[in-house]
Amino acid sequence: MTGKPGRTRRKDPRDTIREQAAALGFDLCRFTHAHLPGLTGARLAAFVEAGHHGTMNWLKETLSRRRSPECMWPDARSAIILAMNYGPQSNPLDMLERRDRAAISVYAQNRDYHDVIKGKLKTLAGKIAAANGCEVKVFVDTAPLMEKPLAEQAGAGWQGKHTNLVSREYGSWLFLGIILTSAELEADEAETDHCGTCRACLDICPTDAFPAPYRLDARRCISYLTIEHAGPIAREFRTSMGNRIYGCDDCLAVCPWNKFATVAGEAKLKARNDLSAPALAELAALDDAGFRKHFSGSPIKRIGRNRFIRNVLIAIGNSNKRELAAVAAPHMSDPDPVVRGAAVWALSRIVEPETFRQLAAERMNGETDDSVLEEWRHALGGAAMKTGSEG
User: Which of 185, 245, 263, 330 could potentially form a cystine with 102 if both were Cys, beta carbons 3.0 to 4.6 Å apart?
Assistant: First the structure.
């Protein structure tokens, strides 16, 4: 006697999505509801209200839509969290001792991760839409969407005391991409906080950018100052910047969970040889065309040549390398006053006081920008004090 044929169990669509994500090179694929609790939005609002967003006015302007995914797209039901490891081959903190070289944040040492990940997301989203008959939208850090809280809610990691995502498998080195869909997919279990009593990320910050654990004041953050901030960088932060010319990895690199991290598998996310430890002298010599060519396809290109050279000149001022005065000096005649001001500051720190006073005598009379004149006056006061201390 034969029994009745059993029903074929329908495969969980998440399993197929995970397999497809892995085939595309994603290291993690997790699922959650397209909804964030009210407390998450309230914390973001408090961050903006305190002014900790600095000049990133887009955060304030998109606050109402950013609170939860369905505020941006009412038909969203599920969020698929994709993560790609970009672990470095060496400890980024080691670069900080090489003062004639530029320290570039790990994520910016090759192709723009937005481009790398978005292409893969679109491919995956197309497969999901075709298989499930649903609508999909893809996001890589360019829309009013809080990726890190969603990733935590999906179990990809937790937001550490430095406010970045931490994974027990990959440490602090994860790029995130999000696919929102109108399909109802079962949510994974959220991750819990595993920071414990550790304060390593808070204590290492060169500019004290964390007023409290889990809170960041972007206005003091070197990543914000070197990338988002236009205009002169406040003097109180310049020395602390060291040789960091684009971003800062200190709070990420010091995290103990990085002991489980692995080197990036995606070739486009591995450091280019010419960006892993570039010479400040070579970077300072880039004109606008040279800058655009050198950083074609790189996220560094978006800050523009003037802001970039400003950062390089501050690094030169922190280098204690007198020979770099030769590449800093031409920027005293740069068309951009912010660059000229940074050149003044850099030269005041690496040339002899008497040489600097001679430069001031030659240059100040022809200067037309008040902010640059103020740099000269302030630097001359420092040169006078330096001479007094030497006497």
Answer: 245
